[in-house]
Design goal:
- By secondary structure, the chain is an alpha/beta fold.
- It has 2 domains: 2-60; 65-218, 3-Layer(aba) Sandwich (Leucine Aminopeptidase, subunit E, domain 1), CATH 3.40.220.10.
- Helices cover 43% and strands 19% of the residues.
- The chain is built from 6 helices and 9 strands, in the order αααβββααβββββαβ.
- It has helices spanning 2-33, 35-42, 45-60, 113-121, 126-137, 185-202; strands at 65-69, 76-80, 90-96, 146-148, 151-152, 157-162, 165-175, 181-182, 208-209.
- Helix 1 (2-33) packs antiparallel against helix 3.
């Protein structure tokens, strides 16, 4: 209710501002050009009304994108409210540090990004993605990332290319005894630090799509 009142007030202020501008132009025109000139301006009151209405509407409609230039860096951050699978760029997807795609057998019942990815690119067959990830992890590159049997250091990243699009799976959670993902602040920060190192050393110059992370079962308190 409070937000509705705030938006309504802002809308009316912006609308009346356009008529305030009209009144200012009339006064200036009347002073320098006389009554006849100001009457011509008055005859366009409807135009100012339309402009004011359009301006007022655009100001109260919620923004769906923001852009921020990183100081002293050849980089820009764009914040968007959009389906990430419809954005051009390389998508970053979180996963547990055991790299188990369907660790509790209910992946396809969730609406997680990993679940949507499997449904879109692997015909709703998690085992296909699991096989590809296992093949990547078998590379000598990942031998130094192992911390235990079947577990890898937080932040370990596996890159997969499908349909000419890059996907980066990075470990930001661990599995508890119930096979559920969990994360704490230290793990969260470490995963991002390791991810940036990997991308700077192994990725090419590309646009990266970063969804909200640290949510769901992987959220930290």
């Amino acid at each position: 209710m409070i937000e509705f009142i705030r938006k309504t007030t802002q809308f009316l202020i912006n609308l009346f501002s356009s008529f305030g501008l009209l009144w200012l132009l009339i006064q200036i025109t009347d002073y320098f050009g006389g009554p006849e000139a100001s009457l011509k301006i008055k005859s366009f009151w409807w135009l100012f009304g339309l402009i004011g209405l359009a301006y007022a509407v655009t100001k109260v409609v919620p923004k769906k994108s923001f852009s921020y230039k990183v100081p002293d860096r050849d980089a820009k951050v764009n914040l968007r409210s959009k389906n990430i699978f419809k954005i051009d760029g390389s998508l970053l997807i979180t996963i547990n540090n055991s790299f188990l795609v369907n660790q509790d057998g209910v992946l396809l019942q969730s609406n997680s990004i990993l679940s949507q990815f499997v449904k879109k690119y692997y015909q709703s067959k998690p085992e296909l993605l699991q096989s590809e990830i296992n093949s990547k992890l078998a590379d000598q590159f990942y031998s130094d990332y192992k911390v235990a049997d079947g577990q890898y250091k937080i932040g370990t990243t596996v890159a997969i290319t499908i349909e000419n699009k890059n996907f980066y799976f990075f470990a930001n959670t661990k599995l508890n005894q119930q096979n559920k993902s969990f994360c704490d602040k230290e793990m969260f920060e470490q995963s991002l630090n390791e991810l940036w190192v990997y991308l700077s050393e192994c990725a090419s110059k590309e646009d990266f799509i970063i969804p909200l992370i640290g949510t769901g079962n992987g959220r930290h308190k």
